[in-house]
Design goal:
Helix content: 40-55%
Largest sheet: 3 strands, antiparallel
Strand content: 5-15%
Shape: elongated
Structural class: alpha+beta
Number of strands: 9
Order of helices and strands: HHEHHEEHHEHHEEHEHHEE
Strand order of the largest sheet: 1-3-2
Number of helices: 11
Amino acid sequence: MEDLTRPNVRKRSRSEGGDADASREEEEEEKGESEESQTLENSLTFSDTMVALRLMHAQFPNMEKVTTQPFVLRSQLYSSVKDRTQVDRDLETLRKEKVLRLFKLNTGQDDHAIMFVEDYLKQMSIAVTKIGPKSHDPVFEWFKCYVIDTKLDVSIDHNELCSLLSCGGKVNDDRISLLMNAGLLSRQLIDSNAYWFTIPNFGSMLKGISQGRKEILSFLNRRKYKEMLMAPLEKKRLRMSPLDMRFHLRDLIGSGQLKTIQSPTGLLVRVSGD
């Protein structure tokens, strides 16, 4: 594939072989574009959950003005690892081994974000620093040492939270509020005595996940057969989400809202029927 970042050092006389050279270069460019467009198509199937996690972590979109550490949606793993039961088993094992954490999202009933613990701790550190002088309150260190390291579930009730934090020192409502203001906890709507563990500074990502889904589904639903080849679809830019097309396609395929069909011209992406 031609390196488009290098200067063109293959200038030739227009009077001699110009048309043939131009034609050859066009063919090479088309071939290069074709190879690049196969990226997602060739990385849709894995036999190992950790391999899929590492690849998606490496391919996480590089977004301007966004400091979110890489994360993966569970639906994206479902799109890439054939055995969903195995995915759930692997995630449970990795969670217990404190390699990663799962977070319940409010973008859908079964939506969960997965973040490697080291990335989550970085995200937490950035968020705590942003709250100013109160960032020096010891409750954040207690939360890290006694809660995060001990409670591996996606939620925690008030009594257990206070019990774990008290291993560090005196707990009061103000300190619980500090944790919530930093974006580390949010109250459950159905149970006011329980909290969800949350990823701080994640609001723009939640909005992007929801709006990106709607934009792609709306685009495909307007097409005659509600389908499009994966290669050109992956290249389209989204207006409503900072996350890229590849991120959203994995999510929508894994959640069953889109399906893929092999055709003579390549992999088709189609809106799933009712």
